[in-house]
Amino acid sequence: MIQTLRFLHMRLYSAKITLLLAALCCALPVFAASSDGPSIETMKEVVKEISSDAYEGRAPGTVGEEKTLAYLVQRFEALGLKPGNKGSWFQEVPLVEIHARNVSPLTFTGGKAPISAQYGSEMVIATYRTSQPHIEIKDSPVVFVGYGINAPEKKWNDYAGVNVKGKTVIILVNDPDYQTPTLRGPFNGRAMTYYGRWTYKFEEAARQGAAAAIIVHDTVPAAYGWNVVQSSWTGAQHVADSANANADQSAAIGWIQKDKAAALMASAGLNLDTLMAAAKKRGFRALPLKGVKANLSFDNAIRKHSSKNVVALLPGKTRPNEYVLYAAHWDHLGHCEAAPDGDDICNGAIDNATGTAALVALAQANVKAGPTDRSQVFLAVTAEESGLLGSAYYGNHPVFPLGQTVGGVNMDALSMAGPARNVVVIGKGKSQLDAYLDRALAAQKRVASLEPTPEKGFYYRSDHFSFAKHGVPMLYFEGGQDLVKGGPAAGARAAKDYEEHRYHGPKDEYDPKWDWSGVKADLKLYYDVGRALANSTDWPNWVPGDEFRAIRDRSRAGK
């Protein structure tokens, strides 16, 4: 019966896509690419369309997904691209939607005074467990585990000498040396490592057997304010499905405001600032909060469903079994925490309707220019906002062999700050793809710059990382901050303004007054890099000593 229901659901889903495609047929003009690169008019049209309220924020598993997929397929089909996955435009990505309901306050008892954190405004909570409709953390002993890192190769273990099975761990965000002014230190100084990412901290807490894992939010090392945490972690969450329903994960994962964490430590007779300073030093040992117990409960509305990556192919002329990837995530947050004016749709115009539109414009320009020697793949992935789930699934279940995937580019949140003298390369110096970008930049009399804020860990926050983990070199750069009008100071102000007022919020909406001139130049870079790679015989690799070099070598050797 279950299989029959799933089959009927998929038939109905496919019927919806078909109907939407029919409705869109012939309604959307195919703009010709301009002589100097991909069409900005096409980009404007796509961004305006898929970031409109009609798409309801493009959350996976919603009507917004159905409309987005139908629209993208219509655009790719009209260009003459081929469905890339064995005759299908889609790659199924099994997901589970979990929506926390009836969330109690997170309370801590047993200290000098009880501490209570309210859901949404002071803490957020969720679970990775996909078959547990009710979660209860009851009288769970609390342990402060510093940065929650276990890195044998660095001789660093915040869990050494302590047993946290069944307990609640309180964890600091980022790496211990994030305040280092240079890029030198046990964890690369200012440059965040994967150990600093919240995803790693929850993974390690689960490996240690923690019942609950709570990260202390601090704006500077987190790289975003509490508003981003609140909008991203409340409402429906999506996680990857697994054979064991993620039963090996912590029952509860979440974040707590720093002032609440400070109050918790004070209640236990401790000082948060002192603990944070101690946690930065090698040899730190986790500290149980004597007598303090955590309590929390919530219900879960659980729905298993299949989201989709869109796979479009422009076959190569002479070496069609070698592939160049263009990737961008089509999803966003759907309905989210409402703005003061009542707007509760996180439209995701910049993040990432711009990257998705770039896929369409680049496909259009490449079709117009004619096929390259190698095949070009235009991949719109799902569930990036839920932890790179769509690209991770592709990496684990590649449509095209990764050993035959040359490399490519990832596009996420293109900048509307205006033309810049530079671009910011995320992971600059890691792979030989930098040389392709440098040549394209030289033609524009621009330069590539290192990240101004490596402590924010952008390398681990977009879909290129899912491919890098499997050895495939992917170039990911952002609009430069050295603006033609106003220089670096103006660029920094623009980035801060977006992060504080629109990023992961309802006001990331299409604006007809945007300055597209910077995007136009950056889009030409993606086009030039991708096309040069697709016409070359090169197999770019990671630089010697890079963490992904050995993986790439094994992949290319068929191992």
In short:
The chain is an alpha/beta fold and 559 residues long.
Key traits:
disordered N terminus; single chain; 559 residues; 15 helices
Describe the model:
The model is unreliable at 1-35 (pLDDT under 50). Helix content is 32%, strand content 24%. The strands form three sheets. The chain has a 17-stranded mixed sheet that branches. It has a two-stranded antiparallel ribbon with strand order 7-8. Strand 9 (168-172), helix 4 and strand 10 (212-217) form a beta-alpha-beta unit. By secondary structure, it is an alpha/beta fold. The longest helix is centred in the first third of the chain and has 23 residues, at 2-24. The radius of gyration is 23 Å and the shape is globular.
Distance between the termini: 41 Å
So what's the overall shape? Answer: globular
- Tell me the structural class: alpha/beta
Percentage of residues assigned to helices: 25-40%
Topology:
Blueprint: H1 2-24, H2 40-50, H3 63-79, E1 82-83, E2 90-101, E3 106-109, E4 115-117, E5 123-126, E6 134-144, E7 150-151, E8 156-157, E9 168-172, H4 198-207, E10 212-217, H5 219-222, H6 226-233, E11 236-240, E12 252-257, H7 258-267, H8 272-279, E13 287-314, E14 319-329, E15 334-335, E16 345-346, H9 349-369, E17 374-381, H10 389-396, E18 405-410, E19 422-425, H11 433-444, E20 447-449, H12 464-468, E21 474-479, H13 487-501, H14 517-535, H15 549-556
Parallel strand pairs: 6-9, 9-10, 10-12, 14-17, 14-18, 18-21, 19-20
Antiparallel strand pairs: 1-13, 2-11, 2-13, 3-4, 3-13, 5-12, 6-13, 7-8, 13-17, 15-16, 19-21
Helix pairs in contact: 1-3, 2-9, 3-9, 9-14, 11-14
